[in-house]
Amino acid sequence: MAWIALIIAGVLEVCWASGLKYSEGFTKPIPTVFTIVTMMGSFWLLALAMRTIPLGTAYAIWTGIGAVGAVIFGIVMLGEAASIGRLIAICMILGGIILLKLFSPA
Questions:
Q1: Which helix (H) or strand (E) holds 29?
Q2: How far apart are CA 22 and CA 74, in angstroms?
Q3: Residue 73, C-beta contacts closer than 8 angstroms, at least 6 positions apart
Q4: What residue ranges are annotated as transmembrane (predicted)?
Q5: pLDDT tens digits for 18-74?
Q6: How many domains does the chain contain in total?
Q7: Which residue of 2, 66, 85, 93 lies most exposed, with the fewest beta carbons within 10 A?
């Protein structure tokens, strides 16, 4: 259950990071509310996951999911560059996430 909470927390991190972009500095009400709600959900689920998963593992995976998701969102939805360097970086982050999961005691 902790790993499911952590994955959902990571997805919600992508949501709130994307919401930040659309809130335009918290000047647009609907994206601002979306950002705050998804941020709260993300932090709550991260805290829930940390009851079982070690701090370093949980935090690294949470931020890794957020980073990879934000880059993919930027490429797909915002037309950001999909350079070979960025794609390699995504693969490296994903590799780290997988290794952390494999070697986690929880």
A1: helix 29-49
A2: 12
A3: 14, 17, 18
A4: 33-50, 57-78, 84-103
A5: 999 999 999 999 999 999 999 999 999 999 999 999 999 999 999 999 999 999 999
A6: 1
A7: 85
